[in-house]
Amino acid sequence: MKQLFVTAVRDFETNTMGKVEMREMPMPEPGEEEVRVKVLYSSICGSDTHTLTGHLGEFEEMTKAMLPMTFGHELSGVIDQAGPRAEKLGYHKGDRVVVNYARYCHACDECRSGHENLCQNMEFVMNGFAEYAVYHVSQIFKIPDTMDLKCAALIEPLTIALAVAEQAKISFGKRVAIMGAGGIGLMLVQLARLAGASTVTVFDLVEDKCELAKKLGADYAFDPREEGAVDRAIEAAGGKYECVIEGTGAVSAAETALKLLARNGDGVYFAMYGKDPYLKVNLHNDFYWDQKHLHGVIMGAGLFPKAIRTAPRLNLDAIIQKEVPLSRYTEAFDALYTKKYAKIVLKMDE
Fold it and tell me: Helix, strand, or coil here: 292?
């Protein structure tokens, strides 16, 4: 079977992007409690982008040590083969599924407290850019027959969007600002509308993404590089924002987010930050006087069922701006480097 590997990360000294190569690999065989998934669609994640285009910070040496590295974790497909125990648990050949790439131990205090996303013994199964992939049944979630499989490849990032929305406490009448109109940012635009936000404002560097954000429900969209963009956003909303979400991974955007946040507001930072990931906070003004609340998010706990049920309420198809067959994978990653597209999906079954 064919599988993609990261064979090099970005080299800033030579100004070269990371490299992706296709290799022929043996067909994986599922164990007793595992299933083999015939992958049909696999979406490129922001973390994949970071590996290939950005600073990796504390992850750099670890990532280099893993090269050549399997990757890909936003996917949908059909069970191709199930182990004996997996079948007894109700997972059968032909089931349409999505996957949680994180495998939790279910034994540590975090798992037993309902915080599986903070599992102390977590394993990351990053093999979604392959024609077939094996997962433990605890990582598999069935989807309805009515769900489009291409859109289903975005269920995993939708769990992140839900975790962020819940952490930001979006609700009726609140003003919401979102830094970044990527895939998760555009999901958050729609979730904010479903939750009753009075104003939804988006910041992004790409004009086409700003326009798409407005089509999907944003009231305003600004290029943060424009002079006075923050003041105009605050004026447009009639004040600062009770909910501010930062998903770009740029420290400059993280600083802007803090400026937008209202007193007693909730700011959520969920992106990967690379080189020099430090945010300057005025402890007196921001924390003491304004009582701002800053949160981090890494994945979500127990949100796959909720994401599957929420997906039909969102326009996920509009977020997928480019679909590329596996045989032309280089085209997909070349498009990724342009930063023009909210989501790029590889069609694995040709």
Answer: coil
The distance from CA 137 to its chain's CA centroid, rounded to whole angstroms, is 22
The region, left, alpha or beta by phi > 0 then psi within -120 to 50, assigned to residue 84 is alpha
The helices-and-strands tally (H runs, E runs) of the chain is: 12, 18
250 shares a domain with 197: yes
pTM more than 0.90: yes
DSSP letters of 224-263? Answer: TTSTTHHHHHHHHHTS-EEEEEE-S--HHHHHHHHHHEEE
Cα 279 from Cα 172, distance rounded (Å):
29
Closest residue by Cα to residue 233 from 262, 264, 202, 206: 202
Provide the greatest CA pair distance for the chain. Answer: 62
What CATH number is attached to the domain comprising 288?
3.40.50.720
Model confidence pLDDT, tens digit, residues 34-74: 999 999 999 999 888 778 877 776 677 777 788 899 999 99
* Structure tokens given for 103: 């495998």
Tokens coding 90: 């109700």
- Relative to beta strand 19-24, strand 320-325 is unpaired
Output the six-digit token pair for 297.
């998010």
User: Which 3 state secondary structure label does DSSP give 175?
Assistant: strand
Residue whose tokens read 């910070």: 57
**CA torsion sign, 129 to 131 to 134 to 137?**
positive
Residues 167 and 237 in one domain: yes
- Domain of 223, in residue numbers: 161-296
Q: Strand 74-82 vs strand 96-99: parallel, antiparallel, or unpaired?
A: antiparallel
Burial 133-148 (b: 16+ CB within 10 A, else e): bbbbbebbbbbeeebe
